[in-house]
Amino acid sequence: MLRRETKLVQFGRTEAPGPANPPVVRASTILHDTVASYEATKARRETDDAVLSYGRRGTTTAHQLARSICELEEGEACFLFPSGVAAIAGVLSALLRPGDHLLVVDTIFPATRIYCEKYLKRNDISIDYFPWDATDLSNWVKPETKLVFVESPASQTYEVMDLPRLCESAHALGLHVVADNTYGSGWLYQPLKLGCDVSIIAGTKYLSGHADVMMGCATVKGEMIMPIRSHVHMTGQILAPDEAYSCLRGMRTLGLRLERHGENSQTIAHWLSERPEVVEVLHPSMEGMRGYEIWKRDASGSNGLLSVVFQSEFDTEAFMDQLNLFSIGSSWGGFESLAMPIQPKEGRELTTSDNVGPMIRFHIGLEHVDDLIEDMADTFSNMHHLKA
Q: Do 232 and 260 sit in the same domain of this protein?
């Protein structure tokens, strides 16, 4: 069996002789010579997502990407969306009905919480939030509970959930589990193998890897496939062929890029933890971090993200403004280093830390780690010089 590093290179490969990367196929109308062919294609596409039938169902470029992600995530079907949030909204809309109850981990991505609060509740779907370290859901389950939504590592604070135990509890209670897997992106973390039923990735981040693609996907197994497939087809969710091409091309280097992102972020995390201005560094690889032992057991590495809690008097805005190699930006997963102010406690119902100092979320890019550290060190020094 081929190892996954080799599979990344092989994904979407056509028969030889042929291009190394599958071509971009742009099409709306698909032509047939006979009515019988047309009718047969319409019938096949209801169970085969790779059938070329109409542009709204995707062209071969998108189909090749979907198959590649499905294999990467070890699922049974994969559906593409124009953004990560669209994938989250699409999956939840497909699986929930008015009157249902949804359980959501409290450390969820803020945009997911906004969708739950402002759209799902408006449509008579009730929501409760549970702590990231819960493994038994029986205290939160109601007769109308239908679904559990998790994210691990947690958004902005990176606590790692015990997904195998949580999924065992959920399944025993008759519930399905949907995971936001954007952090691991199918490479560092595989929720379907850990027991989840749906894994959602914002391919805007590491799958594409070059800060120039908007994309989302949901990889599914079991009985969740049909309702999500039906919703995707009814609502016309698909990824344009150019974005699909760019994302598949980006996946060729996914393993190498995440290895570099992880090494750089771990080096900087440990360097920052020794700084007097820093109260705490949040990174899954830091010993003593919440969920550290689970991360060692279930993950194959870390990505470029880390968050830093600074001393209460430290001017984080001035610090970010003076950095030269870190731009200010709200995304991550590209090749570049980023910094962004965060307040992860805002909106959460359950407290995960006693720290109250100002916080910065960093995405550590592919630059040489010594240059990044020198940039930070110079900025710290300049701030202390100006203050003196």
A: no
